[in-house]
């Protein structure tokens, strides 16, 4: 009798254990909800407060690539009362309120010449959250972007995410989507201040539109149609004088940009590397922006607002000709010209004798391609 | 100590990060030509910043760096890049270049307008790849290399600059033991056979002591000690800099001192705001 009870107990315990083991094993494959909290800045200077947020933003981008994690929406977390600092207690309370299984938090501290980032997380199973501290990551000046990657990698390891090779490559890529700290800073600040870049874009657009409308009302009535055509974008029939002038100007601009190609290549390896290879970073950047703006302005002043050529062609050219800017700059100028000629031919012929504005054709081809590229490159996060 | 002429002299360097406390005050360093120098020190002691100041990519507030007899401040960047090359700790390219393309980037300071490489640039890049044992891999893309190979490709890029001074920032930080040793063997070979002056920041004290002819120990922006490894790797200095008890023994095979760390000092926890506290640093579950 006794022996039988004991045997049943053993079987029962065995069953419980196996169910438990299965659920633990299952935890690796099934999705878990994760709450990414802002890292707390400690002793950071006024101009480096954003770095704390940068860590969180990097993790948000990176961990989106891990299919077994579901991130809790930032808006939901914003509705909670925001503590002074996200410490263990605050993190646990927030995670409980939002039913998160994992809450990621930590701090960024300035110690002399370096920043020390302490990543932590809580795992909420049962009533007592389990606290985990990851290795402190020290960030000497200038290597923030690389360190952001190692933080994401550390989390994927600590959380025992099973990732395919391409998934973990994407995690690393999105943890530091650019090598330029400055570009990343403006991205992070943009996220913090509820999309000011977008707002600035809208405002600038409105200002320039007002200028265009003003010019439109100021010109005499016979030229109104020209203004209209310019605004939709077309390839007008112009005299050889203008074409010659434009050609020379553009040729010079393309030559200058191609001559900067080597420096632009080096810049894509990171500012510090470029500097150590003898690039005068600020000058290169300034010249590149000015010359590219000049070339763009010259063309737009003649053809008007033909959309999407500049957005699509450089990407396509990079896919076709590789990333070397010495080749890429002239190649994308020529690719753009060929694309525009083709689109213009279509515009002039499909509904002949009526000519469709070429901007319509480029937008109809370019828009969907751009959306596809955007999605393929940046993942679904950007459409939130 | 050395009759050889210095390749680099730093005199009275002062530097602070914008808005931060002073990091270096009146720091002076002399690097002899043909030296193999290890720079060690705890986190935040200013190793990376020092390397950038020596490389001339960061300018000091006061003091000067003299490179092969000329003030670095007055050197045009390209000319500077022909003398000093830097290997970053880990580099990450925006686009997926090929290995040969990456190494050819090191030729940039030697190129003229349009930056087009001639046959001698390809020869220099291939020679650099041979020196880091990557000659077979020039066709590969960077993402096809292991981390050790990638680091070697970055060293090849620096070698393609044909510098007289090579600065490395923790070149082996993300590598396993075999690849660490491989990198240091390559550095030693370059130093011994080609007379290249090598300065490497390292967190691995034993590797630094084994491969460095001299060590520099930085602590809170000060030069705590400088000299041959046995003079720098002493229990007293380690305790002072790293706030850790340690024993030092001599490896009978190489004659180099090696360190066996003991416990971190309790006093150290308060001195550094708990930053190096044991439970935080080890990443254990708590």
What is the overall shape of chain A? elongated
Low-confidence blocks of residues of chain A: 378-384
Largest interface: A-B, 54 and 65 residues
Q: What string, H for helix and E for strand, traces the elements of chain A in order?
A: HEEHEHHEEEEHHHHHHHHHHHH
Offer a few descriptive terms.
heterodimer; A: 384 residues; alpha/beta; seven-stranded mixed beta sheet; elongated; disordered C terminus; B: 286 residues; four-stranded antiparallel beta sheet; 11 helices; 12 strands; globular
Task: Summarize the entry for a quick read.
The complex is a heterodimer of chains A (384) and B (286). Chain A is α/β, with parallel strands linked by helices. Helix content of chain A is 63%, strand content 10%.
Describe this structure in words.
- The complex is a heterodimer of chains A (384) and B (286).
- With 384 residues, chain A is of the alpha/beta class.
- Chain A folds into three domains: 28-192, TolB, N-terminal domain (Rossmann fold, 3-Layer(aba) Sandwich), CATH 3.40.50; 195-229; 233-383, ABC transporter involved in vitamin B12 uptake, BtuC (Orthogonal Bundle).
- Chain A is built from 16 helices and seven strands.
- Chain A has helices at 2-29, 50-63, 74-78, 88-97, 144-158, 165-175, 181-192, 196-218, 224-232, 240-259, 261-267, 271-276, 281-303, 309-321, 325-349, 358-378, and strands at residues 32-36, 40-42, 69-71, 102-111, 114-123, 130-133, 137-140.
- In chain A, strands 1, 2, 3, 4, 5, 6 and 7 form a seven-stranded mixed sheet that branches.
- Chain A is elongated and about 100 Å long.
- In chain B, 34% of the residues lie in helices and 27% in strands.
- Chain B has helices spanning 47-55, 77-83, 99-105, 119-131, 147-160, 177-194, 205-211, 229-232, 235-242, 266-271, 278-281, and strands at 6-16, 22-32, 36-40, 62-67, 70-71, 84-87, 165-169, 197-201, 214-219, 222-227, 244-250, 257-264.
- In chain B, a hairpin with a 5-residue loop joins strand 1 (6-16) and strand 2.
- The longest helix of chain B has 18 residues, at 177-194.
- The radius of gyration of chain B is 20 Å and the shape is globular.
- At the A-B interface, strand 4, strand 5, strand 6, helix 5 and helix 11 of A face helix 1, helix 2, strand 6, helix 3 and helix 11 of B.
